[in-house]
Amino acid sequence: xxxxxxxxxxxxxxxxxxxxxxxxxxxxxxxxxxxxxxxxxxxxxxxxxxxxxxxxxxxxxxxxxxxxxxxxxxxxxxxxxxxxxxxxxxxxxxxxxxxxxxxxxxxxxxxxxxxxxxxxxxxxxxxxxxxxxxxxxxxxxxxxxxxxxxxxxxxxxxxxxxxxxxxxxxxxxxxxxxxxxxxxxxxxxxxxxxxxxxxxxxxxxxxxxxxxxxxxxxxxxx
Length: 222
Ligand code: DX5
Ligand code: ZN
Description:
By secondary structure, this protein is α/β, with parallel strands linked by helices. Helix content is about 30%, strand content about 20%. The protein is built from 9 helices and 8 strands. Strands 1-8-7-6-5-4-3-2 form an 8-stranded parallel sheet. Zinc ion binds next to strand 2.
């Protein structure tokens, strides 16, 4: 089996010591860090933005996996990439139609970052089939975007094989929302190869154990 990429979501980290938190998940074995950007319009919450990405870029070599839960994503792509984002994932629902989504993907790729497209729980996977060969990553939301600590929506996980069967071999299929040591197994067995986890990792007293426990082959006494 190919490597599973764990992307700890800093939404559940202690922002007063963010650099330290990110270094701790890096030491725990994570290679990516997930940055949830919310604008209070696309989702009913406001979080962080470009200045935080810029500071994190100085603090870590981890892949900065940036999840834009914002309207008009095209306006901010260059600024996020300039600040240090390696991956920019935007929401299909923030676009007027699939051609608009294709334009956003081109903008991301032309800026030098990897491009991801995300779908909310109510969006059918077939809506994004036309752009699967253009993106590096598909992010399947397994909760309503907006907040950490929500319960995993099992129905959404069934989108994983649907996307996988229409996707190029090297597409990264990421899931986000309610991921823990049990739901991670459901997602990886259905074909996901990247897991975002916020509250599960950052509420654990041992981040290393938490990261390791999301891997398919983990057994509790390791
Ligand atoms: C929710 C965010 C998630 C969130 C996940 O809108 O996109 O990345 O941090 O949090 P948990 O893992 O706690 O469900
Ligand atoms: Zn996210």
